[in-house]
Design goal:
Elements lengths: L4 H10 L7 E5 L5 E3 L13 H9 L3 E5 L5 H8 L3 E6 L2 H9 L5 E3 L10 E6 L13 H10 L1 E12 L24 E8 L2 E2 L3 E4 L3 H10 L2 E8 L4 E8 L1
Parallel strand pairs: 3-4, 3-6, 4-5, 6-7
Antiparallel strand pairs: 1-2, 1-8, 7-12, 8-9, 8-10, 11-12
Helix pairs in contact: 1-4
Length: 236
Amino acid sequence: MQIDILGKALLDYHRGNYTEDIKTYSSLEEEDSLPLPYLFRDHEQMPVLEQKALQLCKGSVLDIGCGAGSHSLYLQEKGYDVTGLDQSKGAIKVCQERGLRQTIHNNLLDIEEKRFDTLLLMMNGIGIVGLLGNMDLYLNKMKSILKPNGQILLDSSDILYMFESDDDGGYWVPDNVNYYGEVTFYMEYKSEKAPPFNWLYLDFNTLKRAASYHGFNCELISNGQHNDYLAKLALQ
């Protein structure tokens, strides 16, 4: 990451220099914000879907896109062999300062050194795929670092509701969009802007088809209250 917006913001908050949140802009919304305190939430403050995912973890866990490390630290406290993975150097530094013992500063596609029983992707962690056309690449990679009988736990959202609907119950999706869950974001923090990046939101049926193609059984664990869901992928 050339400009580590997330890492700078997390380090500021962790070290007591919190003055503002991260601003986000996307192809769907002009401006929103990512509240920094939310990224440091404890288990009781986590959404029910996240709490359920943590309950389902087993064996060695790789927390992909670990951010400030809230999920990893909870699992570590419970005695799990957990490793936090993030592309953000600042995020990994925060995790280490908060006491997370095992971290990897890298891209998921570039790690090779370990295999895991559980791959955990929270806060729409599957968004790192970026574009639907990249699903094969990422699912193959995740399969390669899973131990036998391993599992992938992920949450995502069906964002079709964000598009205009017509009287027949259909939705107006722009012609230039390959899949409506492909969103372009960029972040701004303290007047510094990072380059835009692609982020993927997957409806469950699309996830299930992709998972099945790669030999995974895809189970819907639970639906959330905001068009979101928790799924478990296990090799058949």
